[in-house]
């Protein structure tokens, strides 16, 4: 069901109806969510179905979870679920979650992700008529805040560009996503607000960054405050070396399959972070190589051969991990 005018606009941008799962002559399946994440969900189900059909007996139990709110932060889904008695009783030892398509022969593998801090900065000030030069206005404070955030952003861009080994997951990203305030063109508003999406790199000290934010607010002027929409803590990185038996099993099977793995830090936010936060090792992996990255994009597609190969990959990986 197309639920909003946004969906209708997106439909107009697609070569094929994004809800039709159209397959072209090259075997490319065009569908909203074909890369993110209908593919992996279906591949999990089909791989487990084949294992059961072949009467494969495993040492450990396989649980598949489908959460409804990962795209909006997972705060009412996995974040709460991992702290319930029901989850504890599952006795989870290891988890697999999503990755991203790779345009090359390599398969991308993620063993941690940046901490998501989304925040709104409130800039109160002296209201009045637009013909005056009032002191301590919201606009003056807003200017300071935007400058501080954007200066930091520019330094991170330079850091990313200066090191060819870095990917986006290795640096802190800052993006201004919303501006709010004002009632009339000739009225100086009593408050302006600006929202930022910040993803903290693994090497960032959270306490120091919090102090930096407080310093910026003080520099902007009295009354400038921050409301956090999300403020993820640091979570343990899942080891991808011989100290981790789950990784050894995973790597053994992918080597046997001839897969070229490239471990990275995930650039976005997945439910994996909540699993790692409670001390459970987890890897993000989607078996999609030789595929352009089109998640959330127009004409998102996945080739049928890549999709079917992914089922075979999971059919090999899952029992190997489950028999650790």
From TrEMBL:
<dbReference type="InterPro" id="IPR010159">
    <property type="entry name" value="N-acyl_aa_amidohydrolase"/>
</dbReference>
<dbReference type="InterPro" id="IPR036264">
    <property type="entry name" value="Bact_exopeptidase_dim_dom"/>
</dbReference>
<dbReference type="InterPro" id="IPR052083">
    <property type="entry name" value="Aminoacylase-1_M20A"/>
</dbReference>
<dbReference type="InterPro" id="IPR011650">
    <property type="entry name" value="Peptidase_M20_dimer"/>
</dbReference>
<feature type="active site" description="Proton acceptor">
    <location>
        <position position="70"/>
    </location>
</feature>
<feature type="binding site">
    <location>
        <position position="296"/>
    </location>
    <ligand>
        <name>Zn(2+) 2</name>
    </ligand>
</feature>
<keyword id="KW-0862">Zinc</keyword>
<dbReference type="GO" id="GO:0006520">
    <property type="term" value="P:amino acid metabolic process"/>
</dbReference>
<comment type="similarity">
    <text>Belongs to the peptidase M20A family.</text>
</comment>
<feature type="binding site">
    <location>
        <position position="36"/>
    </location>
    <ligand>
        <name>Zn(2+) 2</name>
    </ligand>
</feature>
<dbReference type="GO" id="GO:0004046">
    <property type="term" value="F:aminoacylase activity"/>
</dbReference>
<feature type="binding site">
    <location>
        <position position="36"/>
    </location>
    <ligand>
        <name>Zn(2+) 1</name>
    </ligand>
</feature>
<dbReference type="Pfam" id="PF01546">
    <property type="entry name" value="Peptidase_M20"/>
</dbReference>
<protein>
    <recommendedName>
        <fullName>N-acyl-aliphatic-L-amino acid amidohydrolase</fullName>
        <ecNumber>3.5.1.14</ecNumber>
    </recommendedName>
</protein>
<dbReference type="GO" id="GO:0046872">
    <property type="term" value="F:metal ion binding"/>
</dbReference>
<dbReference type="Pfam" id="PF07687">
    <property type="entry name" value="M20_dimer"/>
</dbReference>
<dbReference type="InterPro" id="IPR002933">
    <property type="entry name" value="Peptidase_M20"/>
</dbReference>
<dbReference type="InterPro" id="IPR001261">
    <property type="entry name" value="ArgE/DapE_CS"/>
</dbReference>
<feature type="binding site">
    <location>
        <position position="71"/>
    </location>
    <ligand>
        <name>Zn(2+) 2</name>
    </ligand>
</feature>
<feature type="domain" description="Peptidase M20 dimerisation">
    <location>
        <begin position="113"/>
        <end position="223"/>
    </location>
</feature>
<keyword id="KW-0479">Metal-binding</keyword>
<feature type="binding site">
    <location>
        <position position="98"/>
    </location>
    <ligand>
        <name>Zn(2+) 1</name>
    </ligand>
</feature>
<dbReference type="GO" id="GO:0005737">
    <property type="term" value="C:cytoplasm"/>
</dbReference>
<keyword id="KW-0378">Hydrolase</keyword>
<keyword id="KW-0963">Cytoplasm</keyword>
